[in-house]
Amino acid sequence: MRTLKSGVPGWRMRADVIVIGSGVAGLTTALQLRSADLSVLIVTKARVDAGSTKWAQGGIAAALGPGDTPAQHEEDTLEAGAGLCDREAVKVLVSEGPEAVRRLIARGAVFDQVASGEMSFTREGGHHRDRIIHAGGDATGAEVSRALLAAVTQDPGIEVIENALVIDALKNKDGAICGVTLHVIGEGQRDGVGEALARAVVIATGGMGQIYAQTTNPVVSTGDGVAMGLRAGAAIADLEFVQFHPTVMYLGSTAQGQQPLISEALRGEGATILDFEGNHIMKGLHPLEDLAPRDVVAKAIMRAMMESGKPHMWLDGRHLNWEERFPTILVSCKTHGIDPHKDLIPIAP
Description:
With 349 residues, the chain is of the alpha/beta class.
């Protein structure tokens, strides 16, 4: 097994399961493991809430609305997947999704409601009906993260080590994974290089958007969890499926690092993508127009940019109720000198 060089471990600890990563996947896994009475160590390389989860805006897709069914959700997912979906994984997603949302609510997550007290649904790309629940208007990820972190903090069977970069997996004499070496940076009960031993290790470290010059991912999304798995001999699949979001606020050709995401939930409520002449570029390109699957919309925008020689296109959401539905994006726009009540928003994939 290939490994990175590190110092001699100065401390050691044990848990039944180590979870690397503190986003929605890692936190949910930890809480589910606790239902089996297993002790859990969560290791995260920055602050526990520094990952991608809190940046998610639009919402969660699940067949919870009146007249909606998992079968309809499955049909939309397979259509958007263009023949590339793992059908069994899709069935799990659409059939278990509603109950997963109910567990989030039971753990304290609060989603937006309409006047009747029922959940509020909107629409996003690839869906033929409103099935996206949301929180705080456009702060769904932040609310999910808050609720899960509260549940983890209240559980004495879960320990969290922040600012801890996992260096490599450890293997026992039989070649099975038995823990990790990690380097904790900063003052605390544990500092420097140490060993954490466990019966199992779960890698829930998220994506690798920061390998690109421009990304909506936070600075911690560098793919080092995938790299660690490769060094340990794990089978890695589907690395080509890095999603290019069609509507990211264009900040100029020299902008680097994390860029402001403009949720497709805006298009779910009627925002449209325009070229510099004011033409609706998705009209006639797909039956769902601006709510076509993300890859279709991203390619259409790039094609329009290349044909026109323009560095970006525009998103027109001037009619939207920004204060109530999209307060986070409204602040982001105003921070960059854009008033979306009257201005078009420059966007590019």
